[in-house]
Amino acid sequence: MVRVDKTLKELMEEKHWDPKYFHPNTESILDELYSAKYPVEILKKFIGDGSDFITYGQVGKRILVEKSPVRYITTRNIVDTGLDLISVIKYTPENGWNDPERSRPQKSDILFIGNGVGCAGRVIWLDNAPPRSNTEQNVVILRPNNINRAYVVIYLKSIFGITQIFRVKDRVGAAYINFDEIRAIKIPVLPSNVQDHIESEYKKMSAYHDKAMEGKKKSDEVVYKQNIETAEKMLKDLIARTEAVIRGERKDVI
Fold first, then answer.
1. What domains are defined for the chain?
2. What is the pLDDT of residues 82-104, one digit of tens each?
């Protein structure tokens, strides 16, 4: 039987961003991670310094326009199962202040919401190249090497990743995760074939997300709802299977 832990949404609803909050199971969850049979590294090993590896949208003023080839991606466009470009209502001038080359999302990028009440910590993997776009400053782009990026995303969504993301003490104000804290997250290095299988399963889930977005674009509520619910179920199941692999309860996600 695969054990299913709480989702990101459920953990957020427990007010993990309250500076006084400390999840009672944090230590036992991390003990499970450390006792895993796989080597545990920190993300810093895979995420180097500089904007080629980690960056965010342009800080400061926002120069937005009604029409432009450059979509302006905000936190509201990042949902659990993928990128919601149908809800994009903001654009920014091409090559302008809010369109630096470093933060233009590319195929295989990881988009991680680093700041925002109710959405900080949400993370997705771009399995396909997005249309011309750029991101706001609250969206962190991760480009790790020598590890499967789809696996990194599923891990960050798992109980092991979420626990570390929300283990923030003595902080006041809005939720915020900086680059050093992201790099300090510990991650077990699963066998490469298992990581590849996680990517394959992620792509299957993502296909339903894309179908949901097509339904949303056509204002077809039935198509949207059926496919987004399927994508959410597949995502939750993949997270559970990945957690089971980490715990040693199964050898692979397939």
1. 8-190 (3.90.220.20)
2. 999 999 889 999 999 999 999 99
